């Protein structure tokens, strides 16, 4: 397998397929990229890939600790070592030096790469978007000098990096990589993928890698066969229909965020709260649903929107409402050899919809409790349709059907709210863990509904 | 032209941004036959090791050997108290390594570790301060500091209250985890590259473990990707294992902890429990205070005793308490051995007194800032351990200036108006002071050495005992050397810290790195100038005492145009057989402390500061945002303003992480449940205040310290106490007055329950 590294073609063989790009870089002497956590939380390992984005070729920041090396087949990568040219620092590097943006320097290469990707982003606005740096942690500076360095950056200079963006990005095609330790197969079409999975139902599916590679890095899980889903065009669709929106399960959340114009409020609130931009650049909706974590962020949002998943297997396709998709702790309706093709979101979107996430840290944290709410009010301020969906309160993401039913047809009032809050206490039995106590989780499930109530009530002019 | 005081970037900034800056583990490709080490982890918090059989591990392809107690030629401990066995017979915390596997690959070593068969007899474990108190399980104490007679003064006081506050620990989360690479050098000695804040102690421990004299062991620290105290002692076991492995196998051996092991195995900031009683008058003037501090020291002593002393030294913070008694205990628990962390106990001591003052104010219905101000030290007063509070007037001066510049009064009114019209969201505002003592409280550590070498071309190498962990000690020392020697910065190279250049160095800790090492380098430079001056004088035809050194030029005073280049004088000196290298040495004068009496002068001086923070709290969830912070901090005459500002801001944000979102949770088995980056959250962008104004106190030169500067590493961390107090202020606004109980860290959950508590009080009041 080969890929382009800092402008030079490199060949890879013999290494285990679960070798991460980061470990490969460091073993190759490119030690600028650092390992701070090996789970995509700190960003010290950030590199950029040259990829096709919504506005053309772009540099896309990713965590190199969360990429299995064979996923790089045919790709183009730049690391921190590739930026300075002829002894001259790139603008992002010079800005970091000048503003005192580095202290111990260990996180610095990662920040430099995130700054670089954002400065060269083809559809960036005039001001630097600081959210682009929210996947990078710094323990020394307190971020202020890095913020100033970022805000000092103008448009990308007309240099060879800018010129590269005028050429097309590499197209990910089918790939096969094999070593003594295992095999990685990247099918080029859905048909090819399903045929292969029918023969190898034991294969581990890898979409963006942001979950599977963490399992590999931290639990040392090893698989003999990995199937990469990144080169399947059918998983990358984004299609607006009259009555619904179809979102390819393999679309990265970063791409989705930029393509979904006119997304409802719940979705706009959800994007920045889903991990970090570095993760969103790799992570997919299909992966987040397929891994079925009870604290995943997308289920409450999609449940509130009445989404369904389109599933394909060798035997054919089926559509499963998301509310019936989660079968138990980390278990789904997905059968062996099946893949999630897309997520279907019905239209029109509800008049009121909100996403709330309670966590210790406001950005890039895992939720203690997450909630997705949707509401349609009918005549006389009565509830025509309501959806209450939660993460972090049970073994799976849940919708509280009984509470929804009880609210329907009732006035959207404080009295109804109190009754619903009482029913929530009956409906869920959360657990205590390091993210929060059972009592707090239950209280948040109730209080978030209250918060939603006050916001919608004031928006609708309903008197509490 | 002054080089000292110039705002220059970190001396390695260009290396940082290009990825060329090397850290210990970046050296791994330089050792082709390197072995990787992986620990066998005990699955109990407390257990006897009944048997350990490595034979099945040796069957794993690529496993070279398993290190056990039998391999140790010297003393098998990583601390000089001999209380931290490298291969324990009794496991003292969950995950403690009981053996280490060496493999040709990390994968082989790790697989091998899963095959080592260990038989344990689990024993009951003590996992909290409360359990330790109940069981009488202590590592040290009671320690005592007091002035006057707090008990009778309390009895006489017109008003009294008591309270307690729990303060969580903190994971250092240096971005670079513990790392060491050891190999046998070309002359048969042991060379250890280690990410350590204290190379001399790492050398001492390696020599002790291998049973070698220290001259056989060299330790080098290139730089660290953050230390914060976490590598003051705790790098030693990993350096020792790497060295032991190299000694046994004759191969280079690498130990590098991945994050989840680093968090599971390394010590943290000490959790504390503070209990207090205060006697005061109607205006909130403190008359008597009694404080009892319990720290959670973990399983071994490490630095827990000096950490506790520092907590007790700072239990007064900036306040004069006529009768004050502080008692301290270090609890022994079955956890990692808690260790140094920026502030070294000082922050915990200050949180307790600030919590106390807030309660005093709220119990009287007075603004907390007024009560704080009323209790400040005034010029001439002494601390409870008998040290005169030098420059005590700066506390009030900083306070007044900051209140004005942050428009505290106007914003108080705005916050009140906002809160009156906002039922679900409340804002809070608080100002808190910092007074922090500078010097190692272990007096003998307050010494430093340097070795400055001038080569015949005029280029200079500077060696000193300080280690660079991002705090900028090398940048400051570089500026000191350039200023003192009168050569341009570019002409000086700061060398990696090595024990074979400057021996018997102190840890780079206690904020003293630049004070001590800067002074030692300065002295070496002065010696060299003294030797060069007569040579230059002959060139210049002036008296040696009139010779001036600036920017690589040497000239007679007042006649810079008549210069000769530094390099030419150096070459002439060489030909005249004048030595072009010198050692420098510095010891902090006039320090003493009698632990038995609890009296003395443990600190050279105090660093001062204050911060105002404003927060907004969501009453539905307890979540909050930091809206604005204003800081005024005393760094003396800054040696390097960009570095100092970085320390102030970085320390503040690290402190707010500790007090708000960073939460260490141990489960019932004693396993760290928040043991990774996904479960233990550092401040990120979202915690940076929307407005952050940082200023230094002007005209603040500190005589007797290198170029009038002041230490800056630790004191700013405690500025973050303003955030915690502001959160309490916002919580109070959900009720109708009265005290606020809030433990640290004040996670959204804790804030939420605190709100519930004040609301409940309000409802009762309304019901009445």
From TrEMBL, chain A:
<dbReference type="InterPro" id="IPR012175">
    <property type="entry name" value="Xanth_DH_ssu_bac"/>
</dbReference>
<dbReference type="InterPro" id="IPR036683">
    <property type="entry name" value="CO_DH_flav_C_dom_sf"/>
</dbReference>
<dbReference type="GO" id="GO:0051537">
    <property type="term" value="F:2 iron, 2 sulfur cluster binding"/>
</dbReference>
<dbReference type="InterPro" id="IPR036010">
    <property type="entry name" value="2Fe-2S_ferredoxin-like_sf"/>
</dbReference>
<dbReference type="InterPro" id="IPR036318">
    <property type="entry name" value="FAD-bd_PCMH-like_sf"/>
</dbReference>
<dbReference type="InterPro" id="IPR016167">
    <property type="entry name" value="FAD-bd_PCMH_sub1"/>
</dbReference>
<keyword id="KW-0479">Metal-binding</keyword>
<dbReference type="Pfam" id="PF03450">
    <property type="entry name" value="CO_deh_flav_C"/>
</dbReference>
<dbReference type="InterPro" id="IPR012675">
    <property type="entry name" value="Beta-grasp_dom_sf"/>
</dbReference>
<dbReference type="InterPro" id="IPR001041">
    <property type="entry name" value="2Fe-2S_ferredoxin-type"/>
</dbReference>
<dbReference type="InterPro" id="IPR002346">
    <property type="entry name" value="Mopterin_DH_FAD-bd"/>
</dbReference>
<feature type="domain" description="2Fe-2S ferredoxin-type">
    <location>
        <begin position="1"/>
        <end position="83"/>
    </location>
</feature>
<dbReference type="InterPro" id="IPR016166">
    <property type="entry name" value="FAD-bd_PCMH"/>
</dbReference>
<dbReference type="InterPro" id="IPR036884">
    <property type="entry name" value="2Fe-2S-bd_dom_sf"/>
</dbReference>
<dbReference type="Pfam" id="PF01799">
    <property type="entry name" value="Fer2_2"/>
</dbReference>
<dbReference type="InterPro" id="IPR016208">
    <property type="entry name" value="Ald_Oxase/xanthine_DH-like"/>
</dbReference>
<dbReference type="GO" id="GO:0005506">
    <property type="term" value="F:iron ion binding"/>
</dbReference>
<feature type="domain" description="FAD-binding PCMH-type">
    <location>
        <begin position="177"/>
        <end position="350"/>
    </location>
</feature>
<protein>
    <submittedName>
        <fullName>Nicotinate dehydrogenase FAD-subunit</fullName>
        <ecNumber>1.17.1.5</ecNumber>
    </submittedName>
</protein>
<dbReference type="InterPro" id="IPR016169">
    <property type="entry name" value="FAD-bd_PCMH_sub2"/>
</dbReference>
<dbReference type="GO" id="GO:0050138">
    <property type="term" value="F:nicotinate dehydrogenase activity"/>
</dbReference>
<dbReference type="InterPro" id="IPR006058">
    <property type="entry name" value="2Fe2S_fd_BS"/>
</dbReference>
Automatic annotation (TrEMBL), chain B:
<keyword id="KW-0274">FAD</keyword>
<dbReference type="Pfam" id="PF01315">
    <property type="entry name" value="Ald_Xan_dh_C"/>
</dbReference>
<keyword id="KW-0408">Iron</keyword>
<dbReference type="InterPro" id="IPR014309">
    <property type="entry name" value="Xanthine_DH_Mopterin-bd_su"/>
</dbReference>
<dbReference type="Pfam" id="PF02738">
    <property type="entry name" value="MoCoBD_1"/>
</dbReference>
<protein>
    <submittedName>
        <fullName>Putative xanthine dehydrogenase molybdenum-binding subunit XdhA</fullName>
        <ecNumber>1.17.1.4</ecNumber>
    </submittedName>
</protein>
<dbReference type="Pfam" id="PF20256">
    <property type="entry name" value="MoCoBD_2"/>
</dbReference>
<dbReference type="GO" id="GO:0005506">
    <property type="term" value="F:iron ion binding"/>
</dbReference>
<keyword id="KW-0285">Flavoprotein</keyword>
<dbReference type="InterPro" id="IPR037165">
    <property type="entry name" value="AldOxase/xan_DH_Mopterin-bd_sf"/>
</dbReference>
<dbReference type="GO" id="GO:0004854">
    <property type="term" value="F:xanthine dehydrogenase activity"/>
</dbReference>
<comment type="similarity">
    <text>Belongs to the xanthine dehydrogenase family.</text>
</comment>
<keyword id="KW-0479">Metal-binding</keyword>
<dbReference type="InterPro" id="IPR000674">
    <property type="entry name" value="Ald_Oxase/Xan_DH_a/b"/>
</dbReference>
<keyword id="KW-0560">Oxidoreductase</keyword>
<feature type="domain" description="Aldehyde oxidase/xanthine dehydrogenase a/b hammerhead">
    <location>
        <begin position="18"/>
        <end position="124"/>
    </location>
</feature>
<dbReference type="InterPro" id="IPR008274">
    <property type="entry name" value="AldOxase/xan_DH_MoCoBD1"/>
</dbReference>
<dbReference type="InterPro" id="IPR016208">
    <property type="entry name" value="Ald_Oxase/xanthine_DH-like"/>
</dbReference>
<dbReference type="GO" id="GO:0051537">
    <property type="term" value="F:2 iron, 2 sulfur cluster binding"/>
</dbReference>
<dbReference type="InterPro" id="IPR046867">
    <property type="entry name" value="AldOxase/xan_DH_MoCoBD2"/>
</dbReference>
<dbReference type="GO" id="GO:0030151">
    <property type="term" value="F:molybdenum ion binding"/>
</dbReference>
<dbReference type="InterPro" id="IPR036856">
    <property type="entry name" value="Ald_Oxase/Xan_DH_a/b_sf"/>
</dbReference>
């Amino acid at each position: 397998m080969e890929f382009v590294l800092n402008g030079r073609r490199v060949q890879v063989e013999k290494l285990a397929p679960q070798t991460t790009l980061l470990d490969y870089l460091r073993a190759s002497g490119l030690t600028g990229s650092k390992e701070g956590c090996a789970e995509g939380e700190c960003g010290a390992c950030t590199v950029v890939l040259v990829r096709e984005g919504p506005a053309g070729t772009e540099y896309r920041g990713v965590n190199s600790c969360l990429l299995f090396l064979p996923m790089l087949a045919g790709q183009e990568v730049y690391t921190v070592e590739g930026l300075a040219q002829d002894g001259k620092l790139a603008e992002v590097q010079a800005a970091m030096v000048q503003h005192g943006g580095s202290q111990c320097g260990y996180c610095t290469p990662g920040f430099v790469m995130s700054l670089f990707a954002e400065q060269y982003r083809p559809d960036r606005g005039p001001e630097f978007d600081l959210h682009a740096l929210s996947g990078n942690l710094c323990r020394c500076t307190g971020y202020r000098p890095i913020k100033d360095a970022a805000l000092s950056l103008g448009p990308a200079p007309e240099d060879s990096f800018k010129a590269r963006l005028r050429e097309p990005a590499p197209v990910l095609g089918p790939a096969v990589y094999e070593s003594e330790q295992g095999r990685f197969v990247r099918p080029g079409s859905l048909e090819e993928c399903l045929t292969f999975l029918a023969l190898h139902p034991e294969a581990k599916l890898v979409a963006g890698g942001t979950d599977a590679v963490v399992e590999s890095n931290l639990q040392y899980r090893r698989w003999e066969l990995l199937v990469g889903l990144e080169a399947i065009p059918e998983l990358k669709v984004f299609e607006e229909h009259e009555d619904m929106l179809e979102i390819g399960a393999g679309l990265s959340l970063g791409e989705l965020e930029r393509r979904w114009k006119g997304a409802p409020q719940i979705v706009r609130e959800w994007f920045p709260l889903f991990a970090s931009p570095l993760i969103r650049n790799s992570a997919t909706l299909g992966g987040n649903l397929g891994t079925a974590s009870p604290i995943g962020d997308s289920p409450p949002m999609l449940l509130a929107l009445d989404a369904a998943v389109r599933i394909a297997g060798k035997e054919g396709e089926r559509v499963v409402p998301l509310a019936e998709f989660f079968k138990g702790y980390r278990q789904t309706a997905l059968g062996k050899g099946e893949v999630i093709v897309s997520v279907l979101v019905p239209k029109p979107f509800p008049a009121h919809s909100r996403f709330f996430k309670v966590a210790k840290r406001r950005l890039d944290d895992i939720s203690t409790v997450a909630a997705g709410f949707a509401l349609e009010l009918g005549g006389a301020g009565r509830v025509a349709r309501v959806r209450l969906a939660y993460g972090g309160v049970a073994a799976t993401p849940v919708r509280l059907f009984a509470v929804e039913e009880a609210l329907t047809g009732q006035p959207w009032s404080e009295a109804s709210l109190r009754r619903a809050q009482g029913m929530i206490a009956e409906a869920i039995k959360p657990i205590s863990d390091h993210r929060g106590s059972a009592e707090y989780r239950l209280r948040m499930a109730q209080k978030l509904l209250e918060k939603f109530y006050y916001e919608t009530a004031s928006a609708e002019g309903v008197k509490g | 032209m002054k080089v000292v005081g110039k705002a220059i970037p970190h001396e390695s900034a260009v290396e940082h941004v290009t990825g060329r800056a090397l850290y210990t583990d970046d050296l791994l490709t330089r050792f082709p036959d390197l072995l990787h080490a992986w620990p066998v982890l005990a699955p109990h918090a407390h257990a006897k090791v009944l048997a350990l059989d490595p034979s099945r591990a040796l069957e794993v392809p690529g496993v070279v050997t398993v290190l056990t107690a039998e391999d140790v030629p010297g003393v098998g401990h990583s601390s000089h108290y001999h209380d931290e066995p490298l291969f324990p017979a009794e496991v003292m915390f969950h995950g403690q390594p009981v053996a280490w596997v060496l493999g040709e690959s990390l994968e082989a070593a790790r697989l091998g570790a899963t095959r080592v068969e260990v038989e344990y007899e689990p024993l009951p474990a003590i996992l909290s301060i409360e359990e330790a108190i109940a069981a009488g399980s202590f590592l040290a104490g009671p320690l005592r500091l007091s002035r006057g007679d707090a008990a009778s003064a309390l009895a006489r006081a017109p008003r009294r209250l008591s309270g307690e506050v729990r303060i969580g620990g903190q994971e250092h989360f240096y971005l670079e985890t513990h790392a060491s690479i050891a190999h046998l050098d070309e002359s048969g000695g042991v060379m250890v590259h280690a990410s350590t804040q204290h190379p001399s102690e790492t050398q001492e421990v390696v020599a002790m473990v291998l049973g070698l004299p220290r001259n056989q062991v060299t330790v080098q620290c290139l730089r660290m990707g953050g230390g914060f105290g976490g590598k003051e002692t705790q790098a030693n076991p990993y350096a020792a294992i790497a060295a032991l492995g190299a000694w046994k196998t004759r191969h280079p051996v690498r130990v590098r902890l991945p994050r989840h092991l680093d968090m599971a195995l390394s010590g943290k900031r000490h959790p504390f429990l503070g209990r207090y009683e205060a006697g005061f008058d109607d205006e909130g003037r403190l008359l008597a205070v009694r404080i009892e501090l319990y720290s959670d020291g973990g399983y071994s002593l490490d630095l827990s005793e000096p950490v506790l002393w520092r907590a007790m030294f700072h239990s007064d913070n900036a306040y004069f308490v006529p009768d004050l008694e502080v008692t301290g205990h270090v609890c022994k628990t079955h956890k990692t051995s808690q260790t140094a962390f920026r502030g070294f106990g000082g922050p915990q001591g200050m949180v307790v007194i600030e919590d106390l003052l807030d309660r005093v104010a709220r119990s009287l219905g007075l603004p907390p800032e007024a009560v704080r101000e009323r209790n400040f030290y005034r010029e001439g007063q002494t601390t409870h351990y008998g040290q005169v509070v030098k420059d005590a007037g700066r506390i009030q001066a900083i306070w007044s200036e900051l209140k004005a510049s942050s428009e505290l009064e106007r914003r108080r009114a705005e916050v009140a108006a906002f809160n009156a019209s906002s039922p679900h969201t409340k804002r809070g505002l608080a100002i808190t002071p910092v007074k922090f003592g500078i010097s190692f409280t272990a007096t003998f550590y307050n010494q430093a050495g340097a070795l400055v070498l001038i080569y015949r071309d005029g280029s200079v190498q500077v060696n000193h005992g300080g280690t660079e962990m991002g705090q900028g000690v090398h940048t400051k020392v570089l500026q000191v050397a350039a200023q003192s020697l009168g050569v341009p910065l570019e002409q000086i190279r700061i060398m990696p810290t090595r024990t074979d250049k400057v021996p018997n160095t102190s840890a780079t800790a206690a904020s003293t790195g630049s004070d001590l090492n800067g002074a030692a380098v300065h002295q070496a430079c002065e010696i060299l100038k003294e030797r060069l001056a007569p040579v230059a004088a002959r060139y210049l035809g002036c008296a040696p005492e009139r010779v001036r050194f600036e920017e690589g030029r040497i000239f007679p005073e007042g006649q810079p145009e008549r210069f000769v280049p530094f390099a030419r004088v150096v070459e002439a000196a060489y030909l005249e057989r004048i030595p072009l290298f010198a050692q420098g040495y510095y010891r902090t004068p006039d320090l003493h402390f009698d632990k038995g009496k609890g009296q003395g002068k443990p600190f050279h001086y105090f660093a001062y500061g204050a911060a105002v923070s404003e927060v907004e709290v969501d009453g539905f969830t307890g979540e909050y945002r930091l809206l604005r912070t204003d800081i005024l901090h005393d760094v003396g005459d800054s040696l390097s303003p960009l570095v100092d500002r970085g320390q102030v801001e970085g320390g503040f944000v690290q402190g707010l992480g500790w007090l708000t979102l960073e939460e260490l949770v141990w489960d019932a088995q004693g396993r760290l449940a928040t043991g990774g980056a996904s479960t233990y959250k550092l401040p990120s962008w979202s915690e940076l205040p929307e407005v952050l104004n940082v200023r230094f106190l002007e005209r603040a030169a500190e005589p007797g310290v290198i170029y009038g500067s002041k230490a800056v590493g630790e004191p700013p961390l405690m500025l973050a106490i303003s955030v915690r107090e502001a959160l309490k202020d916002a919580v109070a606004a959900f009720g109708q007055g009265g005290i606020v109980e809030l433990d640290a860290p004040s996670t959204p959950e804790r804030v939420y329950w605190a709100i519930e508590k004040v609301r409940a009080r309000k409802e009762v009041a309304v019901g009445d």
